[in-house]
Write a structure and sequence with these properties.
Elements lengths: L4 E7 L2 E6 L3 E6 H6 L11 E5 L9 E8 L2 E6 L3 E6 L7 E7 L10 E2 L2 E2 L1
Amino acid sequence: MRSGLKTVAMTDNYAYVVTVNSGLQVVDIEKSKANISGTPTDSTAIVGVFDSVGMGYSHPNDIVVYRPDRAILTTNSGKFISLDISNPTFPQVMSDTISGGATAMRVAVATGYVY
């Protein structure tokens, strides 16, 4: 992970890491543990990326994984982005919606509702 760590969500063997400069990075926890040696890693534990900035959504703010194959990501542009993470190496947009003009800083999901 380069810089600007904002938040982390975990499911199964993956950490979904939201960063300012690199968007969403998917980290294989087992590979990451194998790299613990007190020296900088070679980034091989990063197995997937979702480039929210490059896709026009702006910088990500928060993420919540609410099923093993689903996540919600918020961005500075006020978007709630629903992601299919069934293939952690290639997160895919399922849908996106604007949060009523306000910037969505944090996100939570309970009983099927996004807060």
